[in-house]
Amino acid sequence: MAVNSYREDEFMENTDKKKIFRRLFSYLLEYKAILIGVLLCMAVTVAISLVNPLLIEEAIDHYIANKDMKGLMGLGLFALGLNIIFIIMVKIRMYVMAVVSNKILLRIRQDLYEHIQTLSFSFFDSRPTGKILARIIGDVNSLRDVLVNVVTTLIPELITVIGVVVIMLIKDWRLALASLSTIPLMIGGIWFVQTASHKRWQIFRKKSSNLNAYVHEDIAGMNVVQSFGAEEETREIFGNLTDEHQQSFVDAVRYADMFGPVIDFCWGIGAMMLYLVGVRFLGFEKVSVGLLVAFGTYINMFWNPIMNLSNFYNNLVTNLTAAERIFDILDTKADIVDAADVTELPEVQGRVEFSHVSFTYDKGTPAETKVLSDVSFVVEPGETIALVGPTGAGKTTIVNLISRFYDIEDGVISVDGYDLTKISIESLRRQMGVMTQDNFIFHGTVRENILYGKLDATDEEMIAAAKAVNAHEFIMKMEKGYDTELKEHGAGLSIGQRQLIAFARTMISMPKILILDEATSSIDTHTEILVQKGIEALLSGRTSFVIAHRLSTIQNADRIFVIDQGCILEQGSPAELMKKKGAYYDLYMAQFAGLE
Ligand SMILES: Nc1ncnc2c1ncn2[C@@H]1O[C@H](COP(=O)(O)OP(=O)(O)OP(=O)(O)O)[C@@H](O)[C@H]1O
């Protein structure tokens, strides 16, 4: 059940922006030593920029007023030297911050990727792949500017602003107050703009995510789209989604772009107040030209960083939603996790027991609509169990529960007497082999795809596994044998060939418990007989569960479970069930009637 698709916006809890910012900042703190170096560079640049207006005041009031050209030249050279140091420091700071921010993005992406690997099936069942990709790629990239600007803008500009205010107050408190009289207006304006734009940036990110989800789904299902000639419909859906995306962007930008004019307005009024108070009320006898010029520079030095800070804030508001979405995933707890006191499952014999197991995918579903209700059975080591029954009966669900891909609501599932919730998931899954109809083939060589089952296997083991499932022959016919490059999803291979490679991958891991969920359905009958022989040889003495709609493939099973509506309707050997003339007999006759 998908809780959201490309049609619906993702639900996000309201988060505390300060907390998100602090958390993002904590990534920076891991580079404390480097950041202290950067801040020292910046302290030098801030100090130089604060001294510059004083040099101008000195030049005007002392050297120019006294026509001291020599002194003026000396001061000019001194200013030049300071400003060369300024440029070098800025370059160093920019380079170091680019390296640090990239390292942090890598780390966040790695954390996100590793965390997603631990999440349970229910997480992936409930959201489209495209939306997950949007968070790993797009949202993480959006954080780059925020991280760099925290250090290069927030800290130095704040220091500059405080420094400027202090110097202005010391030099002339009346001019200082006049220049800064519009600060309350600015705070009110920015608060209004950020509140309005943050909501709209959240909507924009959700719309981007929807678009991503749709494009991903559309490309993955391109063969269906083209074979049903549905290009027109998909174009229309895509068009609607891009319209929504674009509209949400325009909406957000409309508010975000108000940051600049608010600052400009307050800056302009502040400058007017400075000259009004300086010239009109105080007069030239109290305020020297040099002081007024210095104040004119300081007022720019105050509002310029304020403008930069507001741009930073704007950028923060825009991208904080990306951080929210990343932390939302990082905070998603895996449903299926090891309890604190789990033990390692030792090497198993393969006895599987279900005791009064009930299960539903949506917790809290009424008893009568449960996917499995009160299922009990015992499978002895080495037994081959075939699960048959109508579509949606619950066969796949039963085998998924043995691997503990989902947790049950009632009852106990155990392997060799070990309750699955009391043993580590890794030690359980390591001893299991699961093959489904649509086994994934990764981009890489045939060898890499097979070795996925056992990374340290030797070439001999790999060839033995491939031979056992009769994949060796067709692999050797490929251009470069085991070194042939396969495309993503196994494009370029027949479905049967993909399954043979997946079989070899499962075989090489030599599982103690094997699950074949419609695994042989795409192999032609001749190959299937060969594969079956291989499987039988490899798995003699191992427990296996085989789900098959083609009843001809399960005639060698020790027992057949007929599953219907989440219950085991009947069970027994193929011969016993035929004799019983119950549900299995009916299924068998329905498949083979007319063939005899
Ligand atoms: N991930 C899921 N989320 C919610 N419901 C699910 C999920 N997977 C299966 N179901 C539901 O659980 C029921 C049993 O599904 P299951 O896949 O076990 O049937 P099955 O017997 O294996 O069917 P088939 O022979 O078609 O593969 C069905 O009603 C199905 O809709």
From TrEMBL:
Tell whether Transmembrane helix is among the UniProt keywords.
yes
Q: Give start and end of each ABC transporter domain.
A: 352-590
* Cellular component aspect of the GO annotation: plasma membrane
One Pfam entry name: ABC_tran
**Alphabetically ordered keywords of this record:** ATP-binding, Membrane, Nucleotide-binding, Transmembrane, Transmembrane helix, Transport
* This protein's record includes keyword Transmembrane: yes
Q: Name one GO molecular function term.
A: ABC-type oligopeptide transporter activity
The ABC transmembrane type-1 domain covers 36-318
- Kindly give the membrane topology term recorded for this protein: Multi-pass membrane protein
- Give its localization: Cell membrane
Report the transmembrane regions from the record.
Answer: 27-51, 71-90, 146-170, 176-197, 287-303
In terms of superkingdom, the source organism counts as Bacteria
Question: What name is this protein filed under?
Answer: ABC transporter ATP-binding protein/permease
Task: Please report the organism this UniProt entry assigns to the protein.
Answer: Roseburia hominis (strain DSM 16839 / JCM 17582 / NCIMB 14029 / A2-183)
